[in-house]
Structure formats: structure tokens, C-alpha cells
Design goal:
Layout: H1 14-25, H2 28-40, H3 45-72, H4 76-86, H5 94-126, H6 135-146, H7 149-168, H8 173-198, H9 203-211, H10 220-233, H11 240-245, H12 254-282, H13 293-304, H14 308-342, H15 346-365, H16 381-408, H17 411-418, H18 423-453
Helix pairs in contact: 1-8, 1-12, 1-14, 2-10, 2-12, 3-4, 3-10, 3-12, 3-16, 3-18, 4-5, 5-7, 5-14, 5-15, 5-16, 6-13, 7-14, 7-15, 8-12, 8-14, 9-12, 10-16, 10-18, 12-13, 13-14, 14-15, 16-18
The structure holds 4-fluoro-L-phenylalanine and sodium ion.
């Protein structure tokens, strides 16, 4: 089978692809969002459902996205069209890419706001503002930041500029090098934090919270959140992984690569949870505190740890870097598409898209101060953007990708891309992608609708 060339470039090796895709996957979703939604949904059963979705829905769909991207060798919008045409189907499958690019845009707007909080904490840690801080003061410091639109705007703007500058240079260069240094460093610091929380006295309580199993605590709502988060955390359902897959060498095997990425992402989320919850319990904080959880617990921990100022500083720097490599991947589908479509250079494309997400981000950050009265379906703008993207756009995008690769593409194409060596491997993938993933997503949507309407 002839391999098309990608005009945007390609990863030097399979390992670089793993690094880049892990850079996309590992981000605020793992360190900030996972602990707080696990906390809001009672931990335990929620966490197990989430792990199940990673394995039974996330992994096969990630394989599907990489497969389509690598086959199409273009932006997700054009790859979907190209591959649909190759299989003798409607070019309108590009719609999946469109909705994905839009979702990436919407996610970016609130992602950048949270990344801005992280940057603010980098500065505060560096200044030693959290030395010996109590949990109550830490809570106040966080509320204080949220109430200050000017501070939020500055940090949000800094983050947008950082992301756009890298995108301008092309994904290949700076990004590859940055992820290679950043991922191991992040792991080391996470382990260090884990070590601290293990000695904090409430480690058992934290682990028990995260892993106890009581299915009666589970609502359909929580199941939807778990499903949505499995897409969010693996960067699925919107084209990021498809775009990165389009730069992947043809010789690399998709199955093993994807399993590695999913495993790394899951480990980081679980370690973050095991680091954060013991601190929550040791300080009698509320595990259901919501988006502020990480920003209240970690300063307390670092404030009391020997060398906490420097570790805290480094830790928030690394969270910022993790957010940064993820945010780059959020915009890459849109950037690649505009370059292909209008023949523009990446520079002007990034300026246009950067301005747009910057504006939308201002709407998101206003949720905590001057725009706090604005309600969309009972949520503020920030929560609304988070809710619709993770719980509706991403699962729907994933559903379409599953149906497309499982039912629309010829097996000839999928077998070729997955480089099938053992029949069991292909069978496992095709059963999950054709039946398990689509049925799970559809059923969870339906049960949620029934629950809401009833
Ligand atoms: N996976 C990222 C995280 O867990 O922080 C967030 C993300 C990146 C979601 C890229 C979606 C995406 F396309
Ligand atoms: Na993630």
C-alpha cells in the first residue's frame, strides 16, 4: 500500500509519536480534573467505571483515530474525507473533523483559563507565598485569584501566546524536545509528591476513597462524567490524536503504541489522585470541593514539606508544561486544516485562531467574577463549556469515529493499518469498536436523557 506524505511533516520515530501523544494526553485532565471529578462523584465506583471506559472505549477509539489520521495524512477534517472517499463513501464524513475542530476550540478557551491559574501559582510558589499556609488560607488565596479578572486575563493571555508561538514553529521541533524532557520530570515530581502524601498520615483514607467499590453511589450522571472524562483525558473525539497520527511513521504498530500512551495517562491520573486525596483528608478538606481542589491542597502540602517552596515551584511549572503540550494539540487540527485549505503559512493562521480562542477564554474567565450571573442551562460559562465539550462533543465525536472505522471502512483498510499479525488482536479491536464502544456511548446518552426528562 502506498503511503501518502504529510505536508506538515512527520515524527522522527514511533517513540517520538508516543512522547507527543502522551504530551497531548497528559495534562490538566489528569492532575487537575481527574481528582476533582472523582472527589465530586464519591471516588471508588466512579474511578473503576472510568478505568473500564479507558480500556473498553478509549483504547479502541484511540487506535481508530490514529489509523484514520495515518491513512489520510492530513488534518482530521481532510483525512476523514479522504479516507471515506477511499472506501467509496460520502466525503461528508469530514463533518466529524469539523465538529472536532470546534470542540478543540471550545475546550481550549477554558483550558487556557485553568492553565492561567497554574501560571499564577508558579509565580506565587516562586515568591514563597504559601510557606506554612493553612488550608483555610489556601482556599482564600484561590478565591482571591478567581475574583480578580485582570490577573486571570494576564495569565490566560500569556498561556495563549505560549501555545501559539509553538504552533507557529510547527509541531515537530520544539515540541518533540520539550516533551522528552518534561514527561520524565513530571513523573519524578509526581512520585515525590506521592511520597509526601504517603507520610502525611491519611494515605490509607485517600486510597480507600479512590478505590473502594460501592456501586450504589453511582448515578447515570456520574457514569456520563466518567465516560466524558475518558475521552477528555486521552484527547479523543475531537481530532487531536488523529492529527498526531497523521504524522506517525507507517512502520510503527498502532496497538502497542496506543496501549503505552493510555497506560501512561492513566498512571499519571491515579498517582495525582493518590497524592491529592490524603492531603484532603489530613487537612479535613472537602473532596467534593470542585475545580479548586488541586489549587487548595497542593499549596498546603508544599507549604509544609521540607524544600516545599522549590518543589512546589517546580511542580506547578511542570503542570504548566503538561497543560501547554496538551493545549498545542487542541489547536493543531484547526491550524493544519487552515493551512491546507487556504494555503496560508502557520504564522497568520495561529494569529487568527489565537485571537479567537483568546476572546472566548475571556468569556470563560468572567464566570468567576464579572460574568458570574450569566447562566447557560443552569451553569456558568466555564462549567457549560466544560460540560458540553467533555460530556457531549467528545463522546459523540468518538461514536462517529467508531462507527466509521468499524462499520464504514473496509476491513482491508483497517487490517492494513493495524498491521494485523494475530487474528485475536484484530478480533478484539473490531468487537470493541463495532459493538462495545458505540453501544456504551449510545446507552449512556439515552439513560441520561431519560433521567433528565423523567
Ligand atoms: N487530554 C488533555 C488532558 O487530559 O489534559 C486535554 C485534551 C487535550 C483534551 C487535547 C482533548 C484534546 F483534544
Ligand atoms: Na489526560
Amino acid at each position: 500500500m502506498k503511503d501518502r506524505q504529510n505536508i506538515h511533516g512527520s515524527w522522527a520515530s514511533r517513540w517520538v509519536f508516543i512522547m507527543a501523544a502522551t504530551g497531548s494526553a497528559v495534562g490538566l485532565g489528569n492532575i487537575w480534573k481527574f481528582p476533582y471529578i472523582a472527589g465530586q462523584n464519591g471516588g471508588g465506583a466512579f474511578v473503576l467505571v472510568y478505568l473500564l471506559f479507558i480500556l473498553a472505549v478509549g483504547v479502541p477509539i484511540m487506535m481508530a483515530e490514529v489509523l484514520v489520521g495515518r491513512r489520510g495524512r492530513q488534518s482530521p477534517i481532510n483525512s476523514m474525507r479522504e479516507v471515506a472517499l477511499e472506501a467509496g463513501h460520502s466525503p461528508n464524513w469530514s463533518m466529524v473533523g469539523w465538529v472536532g475542530a470546534l470542540a478543540g476550540f471550545l475546550i481550549f478557551s477554558f483550558y487556557s483559563v485553568v492553565a492561567g491559574w497554574v501560571l499564577a501559582y508558579v509565580a506565587a510558589m516562586g515568591n514563597g507565598e504559601f510557606l506554612d499556609i493553612g488550608s483555610e488560607q489556601a482556599g482564600k488565596a484561590f478565591s482571591h485569584l478567581l475574583a480578580d479578572p485582570q490577573a486571570l486575563l494576564i495569565w490566560h493571555s500569556v498561556f495563549v501566546v505560549l501555545v501559539m508561538v509553538v504552533l507557529m514553529g510547527g509541531v515537530n521541533k520544539g515540541l518533540e524536545r520539550a516533551t522528552k524532557i518534561m514527561m520524565p520530570a513530571l513523573f519524578v515530581l509526581l512520585l515525590l509528591l506521592l511520597g509526601y502524601s504517603m507520610t502525611s498520615g491519611s494515605f490509607g483514607e485517600g486510597v480507600e476513597f479512590l478505590f473502594h467499590f460501592d456501586p450504589s453511589e453511582l448515578s447515570w450522571d456520574a457514569v456520563l462524567v466518567a465516560l466524558g472524562h475518558s475521552f477528555f483525558t486521552l484527547s479523543l473525539g475531537m481530532g487531536s490524536i488523529m492529527a498526531y497520527g497523521s504524522y506517525m511513521p507507517k512502520s510503527a504498530s498502532i496497538g502497542g503504541t496506543v496501549l503505552t500512551i493510555a497506560a501512561l495517562d492513566t498512571i499519571v491520573a491515579l498517582v495525582a489522585g493518590m497524592a491529592i486525596f490524603p492531603i484532603v483528608f489530613a487537612n479535613s478538606l472537602d473532596p467534593g470541593a470542585g475545580p479548586g481542589l488541586m489549587f487548595i491542597t497542593l499549596p498546603v502540602a508544599f507549604g509544609h514539606m521540607p524544600g516545599g517552596q522549590i518543589f512546589g515551584f517546580l511542580f506547578f511549572v511542570l503542570v504548566a508544561l503538561a497543560a501547554w503540550t496538551s493545549a498545542i494539540s487542541l489547536m493543531e487540527p484547526g491550524v493544519a486544516w487552515m493551512v491546507e485549505k487556504f494555503g496560508l503559512k502557520r504564522g497568520p493562521v495561529c494569529i487568527i485562531l489565537g485571537l479567537l480562542v483568546w476572546l472566548l477564554g475571556i468569556a470563560a474567565l468572567s464566570s468567576f467574577n464579572f460574568g458570574s450571573d450569566i447562566a447557560l442551562f443552569g451553569m456558568n460559562i466555564f462549567d457549560f463549556l466544560d460540560f458540553v465539550t467533555a460530556n457531549i462533543f467528545l463522546p459523540l465525536g468518538g461514536l462517529f469515529v467508531a462507527v466509521f472505522t468499524g462499520w464504514i471502512l473496509h476491513q482491508r483498510i483497517t487490517r492494513d493499518e493495524l498491521a494485523v499479525v494475530t487474528p485475536a488482536y484484530y478480533l478484539a479491536w473490531s468487537v470493541t469498536i463495532r459493538y462495545i464502544a458505540p453501544i456504551a456511548v449510545t446507552a449512556i446518552f439515552i439513560f441520561n436523557l431519560i433521567e433528565k426528562l423523567g
